[in-house]
Amino acid sequence: MKNFTLLFFITLLYLCHYSAGAQPSKVLQVRTIAIAPYGIETKGELSGIYYDLANALLTKAKLESEHHIFPYGRIMHELKIGKTDLTIMFKYKELADYVDYIYPLPTLKNVVIGRKGTDYRSVKQLEKLSIAYLRGAKFSDDIDNNPKILKQTVSDFHQGLLMLEKGRVDAIIGPMAPIISAAKQIHLSKDFFGKPLIVSERTPWLQLSKKSHNKISPEQLETVFRQIMEQGELERIQQKYQ
Fold it and tell me: What sign results for the dihedral spanned by CA atoms 50, 52, 53, 58?
């Protein structure tokens, strides 16, 4: 009888635990890319254009969330397995089967830029040169698929610019806004740079993992995000970081 009672309680505890674990989480897991001015972490304080924009969406939609700033690679991995529910970043081919694209942001121009006096006019000119390239990111198919262009992976634009300043690389690649933002942090003026070569145009999207356990409605997200975008929320946030 005692063994039966013990087995009954063990079974009951297991069923309760399984039932609780099987329920969708009500807390939306949101991640912003760790690239200033889009995602900024300073002494534990989080901010940035995409960080603030995502928070505006969450507030408007009245969604409970946990919001962190992580590197590109980690967010991409977590989107695939459903550990991250929501983010704002470029489209990537390797994520196409794992996310729903909810709503686009304005297109950004990706550039390759070197020190003053080194004005690149074509991708061909970059062959045999070394470029600081953000780990986990993809900014240009032409450059990515050209083995004659040397890529030095860096953890952030700050590191890439320090390498450029010291002559360890010939140029850096990425959107102009985060490059200039990082340059300000290490006191590099715009006069330090040569003329930028535009190598691609990419559109950031609000993206929802298809493996999200939250089961939030993509239609609901699209409706609310469209509203705040049309009301000029992105432009108001951008002014804070100029």
Answer: positive
Which residue range is the domain that position 38 belongs to?
6-106+203-240
Rounded mean pLDDT of the chain? 89
Closest CA relative to residue 88, chosen from 185, 183, 208 = 208
pLDDT at 18 over 80: no
Are the C-beta atoms of 76 and 94 separated by less than 8 Å?
Answer: yes
Q: CA 158: distance to chain centroid?
A: 16
Ramachandran category for residue 117: left, alpha or beta (phi over 0 → left; psi -120 to 50 → alpha): left
Number of structural domains the chain divides into: 2
- CATH classification at residue 234: 3.40.190.10
219 & 162 share domain: no
**Do 114 and 98 have their domain in common?**
no
Shared-domain flag, residues 92 and 209: yes
Angle at 232 between CA 57 and CA 32, to 5 degrees: 40
**Calpha distance 78→130 (Å, rounded):** 30
**Position 22 confidence tier, pLDDT thresholds 50, 70, 90:** very low
Question: Can you list the positions of beta strands (E) in the chain?
Answer: 28-33, 40-42, 45-47, 65-70, 86-90, 99-104, 108-114, 130-134, 150-154, 171-175, 197-202, 204-209
- Both 207 and 100 in one domain: the answer is yes
What does the alpha-carbon distance between residue 216 and residue 239 come to, in Å, rounded to a whole number? 30
